[in-house]
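Lecture 7 notes. Example A: sequence first, then its C-alpha cells.
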Amino acid sequence: MGEGNKGSDKQNETRDRLIKKLCPYVRKNGFQSLRMEEIAKIMDVSRATLYKYFPSKEEVIRCIVNFYVDYINELMADSLDSDQRFGARFQKLFEQSVLFIEYITDIFLVELESNYPDSYDRLREALKLREKQLLSFLHEGMREGIFNEINGKLFILQDEILKNIFDVKYLMENNLTVHQVLYDYYTLKKLQLFIPEKLQAVDDTMMMSKIEHLAQKITKNLYL
C-alpha cells in the first residue's frame, strides 16, 4: 500500500471517529441549528482540527450520510449454504435494524430532506435496497423451509415499534429497561421467523453480549 493511501485511510478513520461523536447529538436534536463551533465542541476538537477534516457544515452532513450508507451496505455477502448462516444473518440484520431506528430518526430525515435533498435521496435509496435484500433473505429462508411463511413487509415494518418504545417516559411508565425491551423483542422476532425445528440454527451465545452493548448505548443516548 502506498504512503498516499495510508494517509487517506488514516484521515478517513479520524473522520469516522469524529462523526461517531456527533451522531448521538444529531439523532436527538437534528443538525439544522448547529454551527461549526458547536460541532467542534461536540467532537471535542479545536475549530482548526475540525476544518482540517471538514471544510464546511455541508461536508459534515455528507459524511454522516456516508457513514450511515456504508453501514447499511455491510450486509453479509456469504452464500447461505447452511442453517447456521440463516441464524447468523438474522442476528446481524436485527442489530442493524435496532441501530437504524436509534440513529436515523425522523428529525434527522426531515431536516436532511429539507436542506440536503441529494443526500436524503442517497440515504433513502440505500434503505430501500436494504429492504429489498432483507425481503430476498426472508423469501430464501421460507423456500429452504427454515422460516415460517410470513408477510415479509409486515415483519420489517414491526421494527417501527421501537421508535415509540425507545422513549424515557414510555419505559418509566411501563417499568421497562432498554435491555429487557431488546431481549424480549429479539426473542419475539426469532420465534416468529424460525420454524420450531430450526431454532437451533440461532446461536444466542454471542447475541446476548451484543444486546447488552446495544442496551448500554441506547440508554446512554436517551439520557444525553
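Example B, a different protein, same format:
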Amino acid sequence: MFPLLLFTGLALIIVHGELYRGREGYRVIGTGGSNPECCGSDCSLSRSACAVLCSRENSTCKSFNYKAADGSCVLNQEELYAFDALFEETPAWAYYGPIANEVSSSQWTLVFKAVSGSGINFIESWQQPGVAHDQDLTNQNPAYFSKYGASSSYPFYRSHWLDDWSTAGIKEVKLGLYENGTEVMAMTFDGVGSSRDDWFSHARLRTHPYTVDLAAFSPTFFSLQGQLYRKFYISMSAVFNNCDNFGWLIVENKDTNLCIFDKESPKPQFLYARGSEGTDFINQVYGKAEVLAVFVKFS
C-alpha cells in the first residue's frame, strides 16, 4: 500500500521515493501527455497507480493529471509551476507534481512578472519588500506566474529573490516581453555583483535582439528607474518633454498626457521597438507587450 497524506484541496503521494503534491481543480494541457497503459476502453486507474506510472516513466513524466470520477490518468511532460506551462482550471481534474519552490523557464528562475493594463504601480510592486509569492507557491493560482496569464486579475508575481538579490549569487539576468505567450523581445545582462535595481544597465548588457550596436549608441537613458514615470527606459532623448523620442524600451508606469506614447492606457504599458534598429516612439511604430518578466541564473 502506498502512503497517502490528505489535506484540504491538496494531497501528498509518495511512490518509489517520488513525492507528488496535488492541486484540485487544475490540469496541465498541451504537453503531449499520455497514459502508456491505456488501451481500448478500460483506462480506469487509482490515483496511486497513476502516480506509479509517472514514477516508472520518470525520464519523460514530470507530473500527472487525475480525474477521480472515472480514474482517468494523464502523464505530463511539463509541470504546472513553470512559466511556460499551459494549464486550465477544471473542477473535474486534479494535478499532481513535485513540490515546487521556484518558477522556472528552461535554465532561468522567474523573479518577477507583471501584466500590462492591470492597474498596478509597476515600480512599487517591484520594490515592495516582503511580498514573496514563491513562499507559498503551490497554493498560488498559476496565472500569477504563467506567461499565458495576462489577466488583470493576476497583476504581478514577485519572488523572494528580489529581497535577497545581493546574497543570491546571481550570474545572469534576463528581461523578456511576451504577447499571447510568445517572447517578442529579450535582453540579457551580467548579474555578477549587481543589485536588484542596477543590473538593467548599458554597461551590463550582454545580448539584445537589435542589429545596431547599443554599446556604440550610448543611450542617454538605460536604467530600471528611468525618468519620472518611464521605467526600464532605454532612450536617446536627453530632454524628458521632447516627444521626438528615439529608443528601444519604455515601461509606462503612471497616467500622463505629455506625449502621445505616454497616453497608452491603462497602465502599466510595456512599449518596445519592433524594428531591427530602434524606433521613434512619437510615430507609434512600436509593440505593446502583454507580459513583462525578469529571470535570473545563479552561479
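Note on Example B: DSSP finds three helices and 19 strands in the chain. Helices lie at 47-56, 122-127, 214-217.
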